[in-house]
Amino acid sequence: MPEACRLMPGGNVRRTCHNRAVRVAVVFTTILLTAAACGPGADTPDGRELYLAYGCAACHGASGDGSGPAASLAAFKPRDLRALDSYSGARTVEGIATTIAFGIADGRTGMPAYPDIPKRERLAIAEYILSLEPAPRTLTVANAWAGESNPAWKIAAAYLELVNGTSEPVAVVGVSSPDARVVEMHETTRTADGMMSMKQVERIVIEPHQRVSLQPGGTHLMLIDLTRDLRAGDSVDLTLTFHDRSTRKLTATVRPADTPVERRALSPSTVAGDIRNLTLTDHKNRPFRFSSLDGPALVFFGYTHCPDACPTVLSTISRAYRKAGAKAQNVETLFVSVDPRDTPEVLDRYLSYFAAVPARGLTGSKAEIDEVVARFGARYEIRDSGSAAGPLVDHTLKIFLVDGHGAIKKSFDPRVDPAELAAAMVSR
């Protein structure tokens, strides 16, 4: 009897699985696949015949791709044997044969040990595994989502994750959407002193076997001149164009404006300043003097054309209000725009974007704005970058806490944990 037939179901195969359903699938599959190995000329079985006879195909599949009939029943997804770069151990004939004998107990795979398979047969199976057609390498695009649109300017930001499984660099060189006139790739960066800068980039490069995540406060897609409002639960179609002119279509789900982002436990900075005598104009076109505050307030600088950093700050503040609850009912948020395009009417529309925040939009003449910015120790710069969205504005991205007497007490990084900010809002 050929060795492959003698080794058919009942012995070693049982240990590849951990429940009765999987064992049945292994035995049944092994019977079917081994039939071919037991025909004429099978007296000297090769590695493939042994691979089938020992039931390897039940979990790893006949082609080694990890999609055998028992794969879905196993506690761990079987490894794609063709993807040698994913192996935990050696990638040689001897190394793979040793893995077959001793198994892998790393908590990430269900590969058991087969010490009773003769070494010469383990080596033959290992040779067969190394001869398998290499697993195809692809670029994966996942976790695509977009923020709700800005009602003031019909803009929004979109985010996604790119994983390059190929051996060559891949670059995204363009993005389009039927829901926007223009989609630009932008990168938001922060300096050590809290200055935020957003710039348009020509390409997003993903190096071989690397992952690039587009996320709030970093690289993102800016959807400009949307054809419709985007609200939570909607979807946006995007088409990515790569350096080789290939394209990839995907759909991004729209999430609420206050979607949580990465937070940090950061120590606030103490700020010295008196703003009581400063005057601006609010989003209802009324004069506003800082000395009129009835209690503490949060202040931050920005502009309504910003689809990424400024909504992220408002998201942090919104979540802080929810955590503080009724204790924060006398705390106001002041959004000071440093962009001359932001008229009171524009600010009024923009703030409806974050109805959960008791916010007041503020603007004024350049001289008035400059004086407020200087008193807070902040900075801003308007740049004509060539973006379809118009000028981009670099500005200090901090959340300032002002007490009821008009004194600037502390400043917070916008990535601060909302719970920490909430505690500062209600402390006396």
Question: How would you portray this structure in words?
Answer:
The protein starts with a helix and ends with a helix. Strands 1, 2, 3, 4, 5, 6, 7, 8, 9, 10, 17 and 18 form a twelve-stranded mixed sheet that branches. The protein has an eight-stranded mixed sheet with strand order 11-20-19-14-15-16-12-13. It folds into three domains: 3-131, no CATH class; 139-255, PCu(A)C copper chaperone (Immunoglobulin-like), CATH 2.60.40; 269-426, 3-Layer(aba) Sandwich (Glutaredoxin), CATH 3.40.30.10. α3 crosses α6, α5 packs across α6 and α7 packs across α10. The protein is elongated. The protein is built from ten helices and 20 strands. It is an alpha+beta fold and 428 residues long. The longest helix has 16 residues, at 20-35. Mean pLDDT is 82; it is low at 1-42 and 261-272.
